[in-house]
């Protein structure tokens, strides 16, 4: 099932929270910064051993000091107008994160709204891709119990609520 909440993803006690990372996986601002602060320095030390991550792909680490057991780091596309493969790359972030969830036998996962901050992806288009990709995946994978979309802003929350009605 899909759920929408408004708040800070680092507070959620789920199997995995998804990080909107960059290709280096060595931390940054936005939700990346929050997650690294919450997890503690062991997270960046672990990430440094992973050899980075391609846009549209995802890699998993423990959650360390976070309530979540794991962090799934995915690298969203930077918005360049929508004609450079951004929609498929964004969909791939959600799909690859869900594939890792299934591969690791996890059942609950929370997503921030990937690429819609520093990477400037229009929030409404990103929300539609997120909801479509996740619902299509859930139809084929009953083993995933819950996907939570964590909206940091009221604007995001209203978008996701509209999209999932
Ligand atoms: N919990 C949930 N959502 C959050 C949180 C939080 N604690 N902090 C920020 N967000 C939301 C933002 O409001 C935005 O809607 O996460 C969404 C993604 O924004 P960014 O974190 O800026 O991520 P993104 O746009 O994918 O850019 C990634 O930013 O932080 C750097 O290292 C990161 O280079 C990478 C780039």
Walkthrough of the structure:
The protein is 39% helix and 19% strand. The chain is built from 5 helices and 6 strands; from the N terminus they run ββααββαβαβα. A hairpin with a 7-residue loop joins strand 3 and strand 4. Helix 3 packs parallel to helix 4 (123-140). The longest helix is centred in the middle third of the chain and has 18 residues, at 86-103. The mean pLDDT is 97. The protein binds adenosine-5-diphosphoribose. Residues 8-10, 20-22, 28-34, 76, 112-119, 150, 152-153, 156 line the site of adenosine-5-diphosphoribose.
**Small molecules in complex:** adenosine-5-diphosphoribose
Order of helices and strands: EEHHEEHEHEH
Low-confidence stretches: none
Indicate the CATH architecture.
3-Layer(aba) Sandwich
Number of domains: 1
Structural class: alpha/beta
CATH fold assignment: Leucine Aminopeptidase, subunit E, domain 1
Per CATH, the class reads Alpha Beta
Shape: globular
User: What percent of residues are in strands?
Assistant: 15-25%
- Please report the distance between the alpha carbons of the first and last residues: 13 Å
Main beta sheet: strand number and arrangement?
6 strands, mixed
How many beta-strand segments?
A: 6
Proportion in helices:
25-40%
What is the number of helices? Answer: 5
Rg for CA atoms: 14 Å
Short description:
The protein is of the alpha/beta class. It has 5 helices and 6 strands; from the N terminus they run E-E-H-H-E-E-H-E-H-E-H.
Characteristic terms for this protein:
165 residues, alpha/beta, Leucine Aminopeptidase, subunit E, domain 1, 6-stranded mixed beta sheet, 19% strand, globular, binds adenosine-5-diphosphoribose
